[in-house]
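Make up an example, fold above all:
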Amino acid sequence: MHVLLVRLREIGDVVFTTPAVRAVRERYRDAHITYIVEPHAAPIVRHNPNIDELIVAPRVKGLRGLAADIALGRALRARRFDLAIDFHGGPRAGLLTWLSGARERIGYEIAGRSWMYTTRVARPRQLRGRHSVENQWDLLGALQIAPPDRARDAVEMPIDPGAAAAVAARLSAAGVAAADRLVVIHVSAGNPFRRWPIDQFIALTTMIARDAQARVVITSGPSEQGAAARVVDGARASLKAGSADSVVSCGEFSLAELRALVDRAAVYIGGDSGPMHVAATSRVPIVGLYGPTLPVRSAPWRDPAIRAIAIEPDPLPCRPCDQRVCAPGDFRCLTSIRAERVAEAALKCLT
C-alpha cells in the first residue's frame, strides 16, 4: 500500500501532524508512507521513523510555481497512491492531493475545494477551543482510527546526531560545561502578535540568571538575531560582573540544533510559536507565553505528566483573535504579562 501525507507548513502545524503520522503507520504497518512538506518545516519530519520518503516542495510564486506543482502532481500520479490525506487544507495542498490521483483522498470540507477529495471532513471556520492535533486527527476518523491520547500519541522529532554534536561543540566553546543547568529562552515569534516585549525578556533573563543559578541560552529566529543580541547585552548589563557570563549567546540554531539544545535544558521558555512545539517533542518542562492564542488549541501535546505551564493575560474580550489587526492597538494580551510571573513559573520547573 502507498500512502501520501500532505502538510506543507508551518513548523508547529507540521509538529502537530506527527502523532497522526504514527497512527497511520500503526494502521498500515507495511505501507510505504510519503510526506510532502515545504523546506522551512522539513527538518521536523526528516528523521521521522514512521515516514519512508520525504518530498520537499519549495514554494514558488506565480506561473513558475504552478508549473512546478503540476509537474510534481504528475510524478505523484505515476506512483499510484492508494490513500492521500491533506492535513493542510490550503489551495496548494489540495491541488497536490488531487493531482496525486490517489484512489482515496481525505481532506477538509472547504468551499470551492471539497471536490478535490473523495472523503470530506467538516472543519468549522470559527476559532474553537480544541487542540490543533485533534483538529488534524479528525481526518483519521474515516480510517476507523481511535481518537488521540496525549500520553500515547505525543508529538515527536528525533534528535539528529550531527546536530547534537554541533550543539555540544558550540556550548563547550561558549564555556558551558556538561554539568551546567541550562535554561533556553527563545525571544522571537512568527509574527508581531505573538512577540513579547524585549524589555520583559531582558528582565526575565536577568532574574533567571541571578536567582536560578543557571546558564541562560538565548535563541531566536534567523530574522531576529538583533533582538537576541539586545536581550543578551541588556541582561549582562543588569547582572553583576561576576555573573554576567551566566547569559550565553551561541548564535543562530537550526531547527535540528534547537531540538538537540532543548534536550540539554532544564526548562524551555518561549512564546506560542514553532520553536516551542519543537521543544514539546522533548521531555523538558516548558513555560509558554500565550497572547492572542489559547493553550487549549496549541499547548504542548505530550504526556501530561511532563510539566508545562501556560502564562496567559487576564480575560480580554478581543482574545483569541485572528492576528491580523490588534483591536485595542496596544497588544495588551502580551504587554500585560510581566517577567516576574514568567520567572516564578520557570523556577517552579527548576525545583
Q: What stands out?
A: The first helix runs from residue 11 to 27. The radius of gyration is 21 Å. The CA atoms of residues 36 and 55 lie 5 Å apart.
